[in-house]
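ARCHIVE CARD
CATEGORY: sequence design from structure
SOURCE FIELD: tokenized fold
FIELD CONTENT:
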């Protein structure tokens, strides 16, 4: 197992995941073959590799969007280690609210909910209350340059890039212990991409552990303390961005 340089926030051992293709021919496809990994406090671990290599399956197993077939996923909290594969759905939902941030390419906001409320609700789940949560939400949206005129409109009317910035703000407000990123800047223009990457960089500097999937080599070179290259559902290589990806252009 690759060891982090700082105390572990996440420990994954022998993680295995397969899928049965019921709608095609019923065959089973294995996505993860016994993956081991640790992520430490203040680390940014980027997952690299071609489509289908297992990166997103690994990330979703950690988030428990996917339930693995077997293996161990331990989140190290202030109250001690928590085995995520043993938690019921309600307990997992509560833990996600407090300890995990998850930013995907797409915002899943409740109907008729405005950006400020989406982000403030995330802050409340992480322990903030009342006006403090709204102030933190406003600061997050300001940092990502979302026009204040949009803060109280339905998220469904926002552009793809605007929705992605709301998603990033909700995932990072009152920063969680572990931040999971799945192509978080794919819809952003260059200026807003820079703002988002600066924000992510500042979180690791303050001790947040980040586990991320990027197809953007520049982002991995800029942010990652370690890069983990997946191939055929296994970890093929771990090292610095330069070691794994080559020298940045």
């Amino acid at each position: 197992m690759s060891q982090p340089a700082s105390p572990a926030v996440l420990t994954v051992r022998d993680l295995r995941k397969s899928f049965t293709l019921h709608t095609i021919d019923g065959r089973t496809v294995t996505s993860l073959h016994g993956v081991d990994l640790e992520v430490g406090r203040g680390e940014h671990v980027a997952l690299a590799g071609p489509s289908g290599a297992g990166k997103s399956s690994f990330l979703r197993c950690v988030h428990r969007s996917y339930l693995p077939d077997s293996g161990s996923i331990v989140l190290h909290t202030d109250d001690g280690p928590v085995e995520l594969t043993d938690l019921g759905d309600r307990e997992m939902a509560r833990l996600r609210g407090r300890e995990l941030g998850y930013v995907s390419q797409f915002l899943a906001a409740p109907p008729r909910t405005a950006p400020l409320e989406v982000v403030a609700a995330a802050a409340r789940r992480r322990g903030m209350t009342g006006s403090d949560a709204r102030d933190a939400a406003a600061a997050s949206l300001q940092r990502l340059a979302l026009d204040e005129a949009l803060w109280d409109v339905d998220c469904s009317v926002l552009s793809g890039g605007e929705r992605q910035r709301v998603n990033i703000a909700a995932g990072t407000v009152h920063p969680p212990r572990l931040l999971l990123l799945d192509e978080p800047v794919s819809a952003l223009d260059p200026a807003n991409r820079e703002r988002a990457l600066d924000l992510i960089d500042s979180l690791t500097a303050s001790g947040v552990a980040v586990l991320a999937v990027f197809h953007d080599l520049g982002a991995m070179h800029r942010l990652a303390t370690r890069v983990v290259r997946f191939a055929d559902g296994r970890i093929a290589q771990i090292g610095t961005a330069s070691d794994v990806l080559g020298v940045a252009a």
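CARD ANNOTATION: The first strand starts at residue 8 and ends at 20. The mean pLDDT is 92.
SHELF: design records, drawer C
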